[in-house]
Amino acid sequence: MPKPHLHQRKTPLTATLSCVDFRGCSLSGATPTAMLTYETAVAAFQSWRSGADEPLSVALREAPDFVMAHVLQAYQLLGSRDPRQVRAARPVLARAAELPANELEGLHIAAISAILSDDYEGAKARLGQALALQPRDVLALQMAHSFDHVTGETVLARDRIAAVLPAWSSSVPGYPAVLAMYAFSLAECGEYDCAEQAARVALAENADDARAHHAMAHVFEMTERAEAGARWMMAHASRWSAGTVVATHCWWHVALFCLVQGHVDRALDLYDQHLHTEGERPLASLIDGAALLWRLELLGYDTSARFAELADDWAPHIDDGFCSFNDVHAMLAFVGARDGARARRLELSLARAQAQPTRHGYTTRQLGLPACRALIAFGENNDGFAIRLLANLPAYANRLGGSHAQRDVLHLTLLRAVERIRRPACHAPSDQGCGSLQGHPAERWRYGHGP
User: Fold this and answer.
1) Are 287 and 417 contained in the same domain?
2) CA distance 350 to 370
3) Which pLDDT belongs to residue 15?
4) Residue where one domain finishes, among candidates 167, 182, 205
């Protein structure tokens, strides 16, 4: 790894030393020591390794005016789908905004402010400006990629990385993580051979890049190579299952591979061991848990007891009003648990939210509310109505965010509803469906009424 290039500004001796990071970006308010610990945090953040907090804290103790250290601290929070964590970035932004910053850093601060104002497009525009100024600005690239993913802009995510790749090479620290980002974007765009090649090159450069292992899981999933995917993930489990921020999600991928191969008991064991953790579960774990249990439910396995526990964990998020992707997975849990009261509460919350002139209001109108109503109808064995709602989603379902593998849960539900209509003998009795939802006003939705 090349040594950082340091230079002192021609300012009074009392001024803070500025540095240039490993990729050539000027860092305001940094010291050489703080910059080195910051780079340790950046490397962990890039490759989805845990442990970025401690070196970042050291950097900020050493250099309290280190602008990009504050920026990274904010980005760690803004990448979450949990609105509580996102809101926690507000005081971090306030501190960063008070510090002298250069042009590139000012764009980062503006992007953070935009996200906290629910302006994801504005944030992506600022980060795009930053990349035009400095294509090796790895935090601008990573966060733009993350926000592209949240807003479902798969082609933009791919093209954004392709545009800066000429500025990168294996001699630049962070290159493997950039390739891993590119691999995931290629897979989401259906370019599976290129995606696998990029991920394998990334892993040849850094075998511990958890992001690249995750990209490989998506390649195997989308090319329907479940057996090979399970072998790959287990052979490399030591690289992604410990000390990473994506371990639970990667176990979810392994469980999906097990389901495809008919190893249902193994999938349930993985749920119990890795997705059903004690204490307060992170939102990402709740999303994966709901998606896995619902797939088992579609296959005819009774997961209502596990769903009941999961529904309890989702209940505090009913009124989050933040992310339609979350809302759909919460509804999976409530319908799977036959919890009609909570399903109705969420539906009413979304009926109110759709009128809001916000990002969440827009996605609720277009996707979140009809998808959740379809899931309720499916739970009521009202398959005709569920089919009509779900059949209108695929054309723009990517706007929910998430990956193709995650959004497939809606397509699988549609296929199961069609199968139940075509083969009524296979249709579960009504008391096996979402029983406590009986009497739910789904009938009026059929005729376009209701909230």
Assistant:
1) yes
2) 10
3) 35
4) 167
